[in-house]
Backbone:
């Protein structure tokens, strides 16, 4: 079991996921700090992420797009609030238009990542916080496309086999 | 589709859930309806104060109130509570999948 705890806080509109990895903290940090590694896990295999700009400094930006099976692209961005390698990273994640500019009126998510050494392994805590239920539902709705694509992709593979 | 609530309804819903007593009332009234007077016994506050909490919950659509004789019976609308949880469930799934992919990247390469 990699995920060791999940807190869903309906009252504070936040989701906290705690995971433990059998790897050194510097190695786990690279999953976030190296854009080539980040793009291998941020999106599902059927909806892979491609990271364009990647500046993990306070005020810096990460820009990325995710490619649908039909070739369509969904663009997103992060704005870095704080970074303390290899221990913590705080950023805001949002949706962008086709030119990569942040989309107006579309909700954003505040994400805080904390890494800590724990009995020879690395513990990672990720907390996502939303401004309102409306925002949370919109993020889920926009992001659900990825999840559906993944589910459909897996169903296709099963059917093809 | 998740966007079945309009903005105002969502604000009202979350204001309603932002208070510990109101959350407790929602929990108590899931299993069975309870009278306002019985709820009032459960908290160190006046009948009127509990009555006010119930009104806030009622306006948010989380509970319904029905008059029977001299009593007012409160019942939780499970659907409204579930709607708030559903969004968090979907987010949890997305993050669990991400963590799985992270683990895959950290695992020693079997081809080496």
Residues:
């Amino acid at each position: 079991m990699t995920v060791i705890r999940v807190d869903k806080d309906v009252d504070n509109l936040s989701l906290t996921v705690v995971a433990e990895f059998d790897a050194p903290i510097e190695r786990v940090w690279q999953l976030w700090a190296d854009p080539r590694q980040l793009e291998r896990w941020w999106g599902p295999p059927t909806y892979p992420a491609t990271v364009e700009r990647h500046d993990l400094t306070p005020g810096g930006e990460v820009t990325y797009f995710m490619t649908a099976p039909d070739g369509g692209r969904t663009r997103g961005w992060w704005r870095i609030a704080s970074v303390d390698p290899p221990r913590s990273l705080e950023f805001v994640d949002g949706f962008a238009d086709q030119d990569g500019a942040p989309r107006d009126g579309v909700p954003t998510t505040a994400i805080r990542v904390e890494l800590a050494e724990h009995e020879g392994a690395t513990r990672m805590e990720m907390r996502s916080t939303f401004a309102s239920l409306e925002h949370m539902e919109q993020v889920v709705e926009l992001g659900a496309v990825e999840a559906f694509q993944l589910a459909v992709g897996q169903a296709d593979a099963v059917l093809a086999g | 589709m998740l966007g079945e609530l309009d903005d105002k309804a969502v604000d009202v819903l979350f204001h309603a859930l932002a208070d510990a007593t109101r959350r407790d009332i929602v929990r108590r009234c899931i299993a069975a309806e309870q009278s306002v007077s019985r709820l009032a016994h459960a908290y160190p506050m006046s009948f009127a104060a509990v009555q006010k909490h119930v009104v806030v919950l009622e306006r948010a659509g989380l509970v319904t109130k029905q008059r029977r004789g001299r009593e007012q019976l409160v019942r939780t609308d499970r659907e409204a509570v579930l709607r708030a949880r559903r969004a968090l469930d979907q987010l949890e799934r997305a993050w669990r999948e991400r963590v799985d992919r992270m683990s895959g990247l950290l695992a020693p390469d079997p081809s080496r």
About this structure: The radius of gyration of chain A is 16 Å. Chain A touches chain B through 38 residues (CB under 8 Å). Helices of chain A lie at 25-33, 35-38, 133-160. Chain A has one domain: 3-160.
